[in-house]
């Protein structure tokens, strides 16, 4: 499918020919659902490759989003493997559970920012103590004296 797209819209920048690309996946470079794709000109041999997903600090974005999506619908690694097999997708990331931590950290950060934003725009003062990855609500005081 990618072969058709490349060959119908692209010209080789080195030899200026059309309908000249072989597009292939390098399966040994797969990282979970992220693949390495390269396009090679049949005439001059020039080649360009790229991963199919952006790199993020925790790995590849597609893997992080996949694990997050699976967790949001209550699915763990075993069911994710079945899902990928049935959908004819590459297997999910081998270190599936390792991606829980960056997802959890991002959720914690978003939750904390949301609470800070709430505090800055409301009449509610909340004292929070962040305890490892859990936010413990210590006290909630409605401040009637603030004018906003
Ligand atoms: Zn070429």
From TrEMBL:
Entry superkingdom: Eukaryota
InterPro entries in alphabetical order: Mutator_transp_dom (IPR049012)
All residue ranges annotated as the Mutator-like transposase domain in the record: 2-115
One matching Pfam family: Mutator
Protein name: Mutator-like transposase domain-containing protein
Species whose genome carries this gene: Trichonephila clavata
Gene behind the chain: AVEN_271635_1
């Amino acid at each position: 499918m990618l072969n058709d797209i490349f060959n119908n819209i692209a010209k080789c920048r080195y030899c200026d020919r059309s309908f000249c690309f072989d597009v292939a996946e390098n399966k040994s470079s797969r990282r979970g659902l992220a693949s390495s794709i390269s396009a090679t000109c049949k005439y001059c041999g020039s080649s360009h490759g790229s991963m199919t997903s952006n790199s993020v600090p925790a790995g590849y974005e597609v893997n992080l989003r996949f694990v997050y999506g699976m967790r949001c619908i209550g699915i763990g690694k075993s069911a994710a493997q079945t899902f990928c097999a049935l959908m004819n997708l590459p297997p999910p990331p081998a270190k599936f559970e390792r991606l829980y931590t960056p997802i959890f950290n991002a959720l914690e950060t978003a939750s904390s920012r949301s609470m800070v934003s709430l505090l800055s725009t409301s009449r509610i003062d909340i004292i929070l103590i962040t305890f490892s990855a859990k936010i413990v609500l210590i006290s909630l005081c409605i401040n009637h004296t603030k004018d906003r």
